[in-house]
Amino acid sequence: MSAARYLRSQQAVLVVVLIFCGIALAQEPRLVSFNTVAVEQPTLSTPPPEAPQAQHSFFDGKNRFLFSTVLAFSAADFAVTRANLANGGKELNPMARVFGVSTPGLAANFMIEDAGVVGLSYVFHRTGHHRLERIAPLANVAASAFAIGYGIAHR
């Protein structure tokens, strides 16, 4: 697979992520209304209003699993990429190419990427986009899995 074809496949992944972002932007966080107008309600026939559901913790079980999966795939991607670069391979990701000249630089690239995924998930969590909060690490795992497979196939 050539570099141009690899970049086209990455662009296709980006388009899919952007489509999911459009769906997620249709979500709205819950807003609490503070009306000061008193409305008289019948006492016998109406049930009490339901309390809003409690928001889940950011580091709940699902997110801990997703983030540990991100770290595992990132470590595997680092190992495969470093082995390929040590054997004369070329970094195809133009953004990572800057860091790929040394092992510490490549490790820093993957750590920054992982921190970015967790940070993006946190932003989605704080803004009430809980589906995107879970999709961001899944997209990163898919991209890392693709990179691992590509790296192993082209040793």
Description:
The structure is a single chain. By secondary structure, the protein is an all-alpha fold. The protein has one domain. Helix content is 65%, strand content 0%. It has five helices and no strands.
Question: Strands, helices and their partners?
Answer:
Elements: H1 3-24, H2 61-86, H3 94-97, H4 103-126, H5 130-153
Helix pairs in contact: 1-5, 2-4, 2-5, 4-5
What count of domains describes the coordinates? 1
Number of helices: 5
Structural class: mainly alpha
Task: Please report the total strand number as a whole number.
Answer: 0
Strand content: under 5%
Largest sheet: none
Rounded mean pLDDT score: 81
Distance between the termini: 12 Å
Stretches where pLDDT is under 50 for at least 5 consecutive residues are: none
Order of helices and strands: HHHHH
Which geometry do the CA atoms define? Answer: elongated
| Range of helix content | 55-70%
Give the C-alpha Rg: 22 Å
Short description:
The chain has 155 residues and is mainly α.
Give a quick set of tags describing it:
65% helix, 155 residues, mainly alpha, elongated
